[in-house]
Amino acid sequence: MDYQNWGPRGISAPARTELPEVPVERGMVLEEVQSGWVGAVTRVEKSGGMHVVALEDRRGKSRSFRLGFGFLLEGQPIRLMPPAPARAGAGPAAGRTASGSVRVAGQRAQVAKASRIWVEGKHDAELVEKVWGDDLRVEGIVVEPLHGIDDLTAAVADFRPGPGRRLGVLVDHLVPDSKESRIAEAVMASPGAAGNVLIVGHPYVDVWQAIRPAVLGIQQWPAIPRGQDWKTGILKAFGWPHSSKEDIGLGWQKLLGAVRTYADLEPSLLGRVEEVIDFLTVP
To answer: In sequence order, what DSSP letters do the residues of 188-253 get, joined into one string?
Structure first.
């Protein structure tokens, strides 16, 4: 027996805990503990010899913080590290889902709950399923396409939202003074919506634009003249077939195939989807 280690020192000195070191990634949603600021990573840069990360909150405001200790990822403290070297075509890290969440091993999908996520169309639903599908199956949340939001007020009334029957709606091109924003305001003023319905949106004309251009090997999405069908114009600009609905469907599958994890999507979509999931799953 080592008598030198006997006594108060041996029973009062806490074991040293090493925080996991997590390389910062674009789109990662973090909380900075000291300020309470929560946001998605939009950029990482070197300033004054140190790495600085910019976090954009759900209102589009951004603040910068020095990498290191003092961050929470999914509620767990981490040491935020500089970005890992990029790997072409990299999929989810081991033990992680495509959304970056910790994979729940051996758990079967839950029976679908009454709460729902509504998205505008089939492509939106497929993108959400590809990135967040594993998480949503664990939570028992179903994603349903609306095929447009012109009749959203009536659809919400038919759904009859309430406690235990919440509704999250993801809308394309939800910007101030748009048709979409006026529809959202009307829905939220309807009976039963307050506290039971959450409408969020991204600023893009179509969910296609939520895929980061670099993932597709381009610097930016092509600008399509007003009055021209946007998806047709995009496929034409890429030099892909674009004359039929089948061409548009095949073009979308090419774009969707380039998405492997949440890091391939823009933070302005990531934050909104995470917000909806939290709304539907947090009591």
So the answer is: HTSTT-TTTEEEEE-SSSSGGGGB-GGGGT-SSPPP--TTS-HHHHHHHHHT---SSHHHHHHHHH
- Per DSSP, the residues of the chain read --GGG-SHHHHHSPPP-PPPEEE--TT-EEEETTTTEEEEEEEEEEETTEEEEEEE-TTS-EEEEESEEEEEETTEEEEEEPPPPP-TT--PPTTB-TTSPBP-TTPPPPPPPS-EEEESSHHHHHHHHHHHHHHHHHHT-EEEE-S-STTHHHHHHHH--BTTB-EEEEETT--TTSHHHHHHHHHHTSTT-TTTEEEEE-SSSSGGGGB-GGGGT-SSPPP--TTS-HHHHHHHHHT---SSHHHHHHHHHHHHHT--SGGGB-HHHHHHHHHHHHHHH--
What's the pLDDT tens digit per position in 68-101?
899 998 888 998 988 765 454 555 555 566 655 5
The dihedral built from the CA positions of residue 43, 262, 166 and 109, taken in this order, carries a sign that is: negative
| pTM greater than 0.90 (yes/no) | no
